[in-house]
Specification:
Elements: H1 20-40, E1 53-54, E2 58-60, E3 64-66, E4 69-76, E5 81-86, E6 91-95, H2 101-114, H3 145-167, E7 177-179, E8 184-194, H4 207-213, E9 216-224, E10 231-237, E11 254-256, E12 261-265, H5 266-270, H6 275-293, H7 298-301, H8 307-319
Antiparallel strand pairs: 1-2, 2-4, 3-4, 4-5, 5-6, 7-8, 8-9, 9-10, 10-12, 11-12
Helix pairs in contact: 3-6
Length: about 325
């Protein structure tokens, strides 16, 4: 069988314990920017409006309507700066360097003022405990540029594979998106049916936030920078009976009873002879378990993710 992973794809090594302080600081900075997007965009299914996209430079907000203009903000992990652009041609940047959250938050306020942008946000983080107000947070102050660059390169590889996995589903599916609340990259498939009311319980986060996030039956997968080198996860909400007993595909994958999710260490994918195929195996088997046990209409919902290439091949053959 042909290798799925492109020849130029590099799955980098990055131990979580080597950059956890930087990760936590970047998490808080991302929450500040995420709250700007939350304040400026209308609510779209399951909070899809507030997320970031992996870009060719880092993590980007996309367009945020502000006072009749559009603003976009990007964490540039190549030049290590936060770049702000507005549709009236203005541009500004903030250096990403070792600095407190309070300092980052204060400079961002000054920069927004120079761009003539006023956005009110709830100025403390969600989904973490303790939730230190941004203006008072001098605890988080680390920034290791090399580690952040490697993290971004992890996301680049994962984004590629998640995009392919998403392409195999014709039903309602989220974008591949980065959630700043939980600081993870995720993609979610939906059966089309409603889900029971979510119990909530995330730290410093109102229950109705999770109720919106999980208002429809779903099977989700993602990547979080925790564990040894990072962790892939997969879960279903609600989890059908027998879900945790199903196999999860590749070596290294297992059910985590504490998290209530299937997990696969990033290093298991990185060490694999074919990382793309290994990760797709995890995504496909965990989804299939949820869909089969919950009786999703799989023939209706699933499609060939390579159908465009196959059709182009047919057209070329016909032309000959």
């Amino acid at each position: 069988m042909a290798r799925s992973t492109p020849a130029k794809a590099v799955w980098p090594t990055l131990r979580v314990d080597s950059w956890s302080d930087t990760r936590d600081t970047l998490h808080m900075w991302s929450q500040i920017i995420g709250k700007l997007k939350l304040a400026g965009t209308p609510l779209v299914n399951h909070w899809w409006n507030v997320t970031f996209a992996v870009s060719a430079r880092g993590l980007a907000t996309g367009a945020i309507p502000v006072d009749g203009r559009l603003l976009d903000i990007e964490f540039d992990f190549a030049d290590h700066e936060l770049v702000l652009r507005s549709s009236d041609g203005r541009h500004a940047a903030i250096a990403l360097r070792p600095r407190t959250v309070a300092d980052f938050y204060a400079e961002l306020g000054h920069v927004l003022g120079r761009l003539d942008i006023v956005v009110d946000i709830e100025a403390s983080p969600n989904e973490v405990d303790p939730a230190i107000p941004f203006a008072e947070d001098t605890t988080h102050h680390s920034y290791n540029a090399d580690a952040v660059h490697l993290f971004w390169q992890q996301l680049v590889q994962i984004e590629r594979v998640f995009q392919l996995w998403r392409a195999g589903f014709a039903g309602k599916s989220s974008p591949v998106q980065f959630f700043w609340g939980s600081f993870d990259l995720a993609c979610t498939r939906f059966s089309g049916r409603p889900a029971p009311l979510h119990p909530g319980g995330a730290p410093n986060c109102a229950d109705w936030v999770m109720e919106e996030a999980y208002s429809r039956e779903c099977a989700s997968a993602g990547f979080w920078p925790g564990g040894t080198e990072g962790t892939f996860y997969a879960y279903s909400y609600p989890a059908p009976d027998g879900y945790s007993d199903r196999p999860a595909g590749p070596d290294g994958a297992q059910w985590d009873t504490t998290l209530g999710e299937f997990v696969l260490p990033y290093e298991s994918v990185r060490h694999s002879p074919d990382p793309d195929a290994t990760l797709l195996n995890f995504l496909n088997t965990t989804y299939a378990s949820a869909a089969e046990l919950a009786h999703w209409d799989r023939p209706l919902l699933e499609v060939d993710p390579h159908r465009l290439n196959r059709q182009l091949h047919v057209d070329d053959t016909t032309a000959l």
